[in-house]
Amino acid sequence: MTKIRSATRMALSIGIGCASLIWIAAAIGLVPDPALEQGRSRIGTARTLAVNVATYAENRRQVNLKKLLERTVESDDNIVSIGVRRTNSEQHLMTFGPHVEYWNLDHRNDAAKQISVEILASEQPWGELEIVFAPYQFSGNILWLSFPFGLVAFVFTASSLFAWVILSKSLKYLNPSNVVPSRVRSALDTLAEGLVLLDGNGEIAHANESFKKITSSIGEDILGRKIGDFGWQKEATELDEGMPWELCLEDQQRVARHVLSLTLPDSTLKKFAVNATPIYNGEEKVRGVLVSFDDVTALENKNSELAKIIGSLRSSRDEVARQNERLNFLASYDPLTKCMNRRSFFDQFEKYWNDEDCKLLNLLMLDIDFFKNINDTHGHSIGDEVLVLMGHLLRESVGDRGIVCRYGGEEFVVLIPSITVDQCESFANDLRQLIEQSETSGVKFTASLGLSCRQFIPMDAQHLLDQADESLYLAKGSGRNKVVRFDKRLEYKELIDKAAVAEAEQGKEIPYTAVTGLLSALSFRCPRTAEHSIRVADMSVIVGEQLMNRRELYQLEVAALLHDVGKIGVPDSILHKPGPLTKEEWVVMRKHDDIGAEIVRSALSSEKIAHYIESHHQEFSADDVGTDTVMLMPLASRIMTVCDAFDAMTNDRVYRPAMSEDEALQELERNSPGQFDPQVVSILCEHVRSGVHKPKSEVGRPVFSTQQANAIGEHIEELYVAVSDEDVEKIKNVVQQLRADASGDSQVDEVANRLDDAIGVTPQADLEEVLNLANEVMQICRESRNTFVQTAESIVAD
After folding, report:
1. Fold agreement between 333-505 and 507-514+532-692
2. Three-state DSSP state, 594
3. How far is 55 from 49, CA to CA, in rounded Å?
4. Distance (Å, rounded) from C-alpha 308 to C-alpha 316?
């Protein structure tokens, strides 16, 4: 609540006293009544005018009388109208102004409104003079009240203002310190802390010498000043609160240890601990405040420095905690995939294994299929993206149900307790499908999974891991992109044997002269089929580059070139029939796959390529995933099936015209995954629709002899092996041999020169550039081989 200053209170008291005296004087009649005086004046005016009217009446000068009364009404603003009436007559002899309208017999002798005066002529009643006056400005009680009120208001305002000015000036010259005895002042001056005595308005009544030193006001007269005028500054935490002495006066309670700052004239900043205590009078009312100022500048500065040190230590502690957390993460997790590393995984694995309550414990081992081919084809940065995505998919899928570990390279391990092996197998298949549907930077990939669990009675934790690893080996060896349980491993025995044979064949060279001879024989028997085989091989290589390593890609190319070689054993009447085949003829025609497989086994001694040819007419079905049907249909066969169907649909047959490429692609997509592998179809569609599709067999090449063609064909296999092994020196040697065998071929010379520049004097070269150049050389070799076959066909046709 805002307090009124003493000078103001005293001035108002004086004003009220003066106004009261005026009211009393008016009440006892000491103040003149203007209404009464005006009434007397009007009566005198009426009598004087009546005498003049009587004079004119005696002399019978009515004309002069009219002029007199008319001038009187016009000249006197207080007179509204005048009327003259003869004695005992109700009619007026004459009127001036709106007399009839305003004259009222009930108020004939009311001086405030109208007056009637008898007119005597020759001492005899002659008539009456009637005068209507304008009303007073105030009348009756209102007149009596209004006049003193204005006077009282004026006296009150003027006296209060005058008294306030005089008192405000005068009180400044009074010495407030007189309220403090001299002995008390002397005692207060001996105190080291600043001490101030304030009155109820916050004005200084006394200040000791210490306070004057604090505020640099020694020698100045600070008594009567507001203590808030010194420029005190509050701490940031107290900005919303008032000053200590204000709080003390308002709450009438002691206020302690408020810290205030004061900037001295020399720009020095001082800090004070301020205490305020209320001072009571005999009636227990607060009359002032005693305020003490304790200089705590040094202490506050030390506290500030200490706070900075503590803040710095806290920041250092937090940084150390963050670094420790990061070190713990780096020590326990793989930084690329954010999955647990092997060391931390084995610590957790042992805890689960040794937990007697953990009866259900499943372990999944995963491996990304053809990961090396992804690195070779798209680069290691894309390979890292694949690893990151794999880690993300595993962590999101497993969540809090288990532990995900990057076991090494592209291998991951997942430990899942508290569920049955059947539930874990279902989870693994869902995870496999999720991985198959994912992609990063346009690259799709799959994974093979091996599953084992505590139920299969492993001897220890490592044995459980070995069981899962063995199951993973079976999943990869039987076609990849599948889940294999350890308890079902015997079902894969035949596939394991075939995989072992295939592995043995990888190190064995395929006699390319035999491949060329078989392709030439097919060209002699059916040139159109040979051209079809070359186109299928070209497309199969394009698709296989994204799904296979180099060794497997070479085997795919050979299998695609010879996939219809069995038609050599089909009778001409069926092979060259100009119309559709009958059911019996189809039975004979379908035997060409088995015939071709036997020819390949005999000529090339390759069980793997023979198996590709036998399997390429099987139908792929999503319902068969995880069954022997898919296991027995290798990836190479699935690629050949799609490319074979596409080329057959986009080329004329004697019994139907060719489809457009777009129509053929739509047909493949409609029958995927019912008949064709959807992943293979997707890659082929993307390539054809990109606009760069062009059968490589159409590119013209120089014509070589049979000996040169066979040598070039052998170099294709050698380059495949060298590129697969990333053997730069071997690549260089093969290209140099190719340059010698294909002498005069400008394309071979140009690529060989670029390869020499890339390798330099040592094999330490840019591997990616060398591999790209080697791929160009392989493409040149394919074109040369195709040109040789087409030339042979032309000779046969002639």
Report:
1. no
2. helix
3. 10
4. 12
Structure tokens at 428: 């693994």
What is the third-level CATH fold of 507-514+532-692?
Answer: Hypothetical protein af1432 (1.10.3210)
pTM score: 0.38
Q: Is 6 helix (H, G, I), strand (E, B) or coil?
A: helix
- Kind plus residue range of the DSSP H or E element containing 79: strand 79-86
Q: Identify the three-state secondary structure at position 295.
A: strand
Q: Which helix (H) or strand (E) holds 43?
A: helix 34-58
**CA separation for the pair 730, 761 (Å, rounded):** 14
User: Taking every pair of C-alpha atoms in the chain, what is the biggest distance, in angstroms?
Assistant: 182
The span from the CA of 203 to the CA of 633, in Å, is 104
Q: Identify the CATH assignment for 34-137 out of 3.30.230.10, 1.10.730.10, 3.30.450.20, 3.30.1540.20.
A: 3.30.450.20
Following CA atoms 315, 320, 322, 323 in sequence, which dihedral angle do they give, to the nearest 10 degrees?
A: 140
Do residues 712 and 721 make contact, with C-beta atoms less than 8 angstroms apart?
Answer: no
Give the architecture (CATH level 2) of 333-505.
2-Layer Sandwich (3.30)
Report yes or no: 73 and 144 within 8 Å, Cβ to Cβ.
Answer: no
Helix, strand, coil percent values for the chain (each to nearest 5): 60, 15, 25
Rounded Cα–Cα distance for residues 448 and 368 (Å):
7
Strand ordering across the sheet containing 233-234:
204-207, 194-199, 286-295, 269-280, 255-263, 233-234
Cα–Cα distance measured from residue 276 to residue 250, given in angstroms and rounded to the nearest whole number: 12
Does residue 492 surpass a pLDDT of 70?
no
**Residues 6+ positions from 773 with CB-CB distance below 8 Å:** 751, 754, 755, 758
- Ordered by start, the domain boundaries in the chain are 6-31+142-172, 34-137, 176-295, 333-505, 507-514+532-692, 699-798
Query: Where are any strands of DSSP class E within 337-470?
Result: 361-368, 403-408, 411-417, 439-440, 443-444, 447-453
pLDDT (tens digit, 9 = 90+) per residue, 228-286? 777 888 876 666 678 888 888 888 888 888 888 888 777 888 888 889 888 887 677 88
